Amino acid sequence: MDPDALAKAFVEHYYTTFDNNRPGLASLYQDGSMLTFEGQKIQGSPNIVAKLTSLPFSQCHHSITTVDCQPSAATNGMLVFVSGNLQLAGEQHALKFSQMFHLLPTPQGSYYVLNDIFRLNYA
Amino acid sequence: MDPDALAKAFVEHYYTTFDNNRPGLASLYQDGSMLTFEGQKIQGSPNIVAKLTSLPFSQCHHSITTVDCQPSAATNGMLVFVSGNLQLAGEQHALKFSQMFHLLPTPQGSYYVLNDIFRLNYA
To answer: Per-residue pLDDT tens for A15-62?
Structure first.
């Protein structure tokens, strides 16, 4: 699978899980994983998932606009850059967001998120 | 210097150079550097600077809105995530952009850009 297709598959899996089964994101992070969410720094899968599941909205839908990827300096690592729209239940307008992931391979042949930075793009 | 201050100093230096002396960006990239600019993949400092200096606007001004950073998996490497506005000369409205950099240390105690991904955030 070429890197762009891998990145796109990861991103689709990530946001589908976020939108339908947020606690399921736990398997995509590890103890050393870092999330910076709107400037707040959080480390480790349990803390990251606690943050993501406690966001002040229960239902949401991410629409992906662009996915870019590059190989990272880490062996078989991948940098993924996403832009898109986040629609919250009950809100009229979608929010624009940008997010980057640094993915590292797992021994099982999959990927986990080492670095994750999320920002809303306010108009 | 703490990582957040370093990241902010790099970002200010980068965009000041971009806005005032675009060819000067050459020293911030190396042969292995990668740029993905609006989906177009470019590799190596000379090609990257050729792209950036041939963009269809001569004067511009970047205003930084947010700078986030995390340590990368590479030794003393740093991931930097920027959002901001790009004002082109003669245009009424600024364009919103997001950009990520993966910075690696140089032997001289400075940083260069290994990975660079840029996207405009269209409204």
So the answer is: 999 999 999 999 999 999 999 999 999 999 999 999 999 999 989 999
The answer on pLDDT for A123 being more than 70 is: no
- Which of B34, B79, B83 has its CB closest to that of A102? B79
| CATH number assigned to the domain comprising residue A40 | 3.10.450.50
Q: Is B22 exposed, middle or buried (0-12, 13-18, 19+ CB in 10 A)?
A: middle
Q: What is the ipTM of this complex?
A: 0.94
Name the residue type at position A20.
N
Number of residues that make up chain A: 123
In angstroms, what separates the C-alpha of B73 from chain A's closest C-alpha?
6
Residues of chain A in contact with residue B101, where contact means CB-CB under 8 angstroms, are: none
Mean pLDDT, residues B73-100 taken together: 94
Q: Tell me the residue range of the domain where B113 lies.
A: 3-120
Q: Minimal CA–CA distance to A78: which of A1, A7, A30?
A: A7
What's the 3-state SS for A33-93?
A: EEEEECCEEEECHHHHHHHHHCCCCCCEEEEEEEEEEEECCCCCCEEEEEEEEEEECCCCC
pLDDT of residue B123: 61
Please report the pLDDT score of residue A98 as a whole number.
98
At A99 the three-state DSSP class reads strand
Supply the pLDDT for residue A58.
Answer: 87
How many separate domains does chain A show? 1
Nearest-angstrom CA–CA distance, A62 and A97 = 9
Q: What are phi and psi of B95, to 5 degrees?
A: -95, 140
Which positions in chain A touch B30 (Cβ < 8 Å)?
none
